[in-house]
Amino acid sequence: MADEPKKKSKYPWGAMFWGTIGIAAAVRALYHPFRAVMRNGFPSRCASDGSCDPSMTIDSFEGESEIYALGSGTVVAASPAGIYIALNSEPTLVEYAADPGQLVTQVVTGESVGAGQQIGLAKRVKFAVYMIDQSATVGRPFEPASWLANHGLRVSHKTHKTSGAVWCAGGRKLVVPQTVATCGMRLPPPNGFALLPVSATME
Predict the structure, then answer these.
(1) Cα torsion at 77, 80, 82, 87 (round to 10°)?
(2) CB 116 within 8 A of CB 102
(3) Digit-coded pLDDT (tens) for 32-70
(4) Which residues contact 109 (CB under 8 A, 6 or more apart)?
(5) 138-142 and 56-60: which strand pairing?
(6) Pair 40, 13: CB distance under 8 Å
(7) Rounded to whole angstroms, how far apart are CA atoms 48 and 203?
């Protein structure tokens, strides 16, 4: 008895799957339009550049620019010198530091914030990301540019010609210098959010 031809599914599963992915990405983009540290800025210094400072420096194109929460969490400290947010989704502390008086804070200690919420204004911000261990102690820092890329986030909502001047402006494809590891920083673990490939490798 001859084999019967396989029946084709009446449901276009492939098209439905990729359509759902596209809709989810569009909804996320519209719901949180500012998935970036700063609205108008560019990285002027990368982490570990010239020292073992784990932060990257982000400068505004001109004047004060809005800065945003990169995820929902709790403000553990807020002052004209810095804003620190403990994220709800992972044991991570996000730091937005500035020279005293150079940061206009729009949140207060203990406040809950949402992803994409404006939390302050600054001409320059030093951005860093730290692990929080089980005892709620701040631990090793992540290399911040690769942490952003790994979470589908960006340095700035708008690009700028100056952005290509440093390696940490590479977006989703970063070649991280060995000094990052030498200084005790780590690359973030793979993240399920990143639907597009993220390449953060050591030199």
Answers:
(1) 40
(2) no
(3) 456 899 999 999 999 988 889 999 999 998 889 999 999
(4) 75, 76, 77, 78
(5) unpaired
(6) no
(7) 14
Q: Which two tokens stand for residue 184?
A: 């005790």
pLDDT band at residue 196, thresholds of 50, 70 and 90? Answer: very low
pLDDT (tens digit per residue) in 132-141:
876 667 788 9
| Structural domain containing residue 105 | 37-202
Domain of 44, CATH number, reads 2.70.70.10
Residue 27 lies in a domain: no
Distance of CA 160 to the CA centre of its chain: 18
Query: How many independent structural domains does the chain possess?
Result: 1
Contacts of 192 (CB under 8 A, 6+ apart): none
- pTM value is 0.77
| DSSP H or E stretch at residue 110 | none
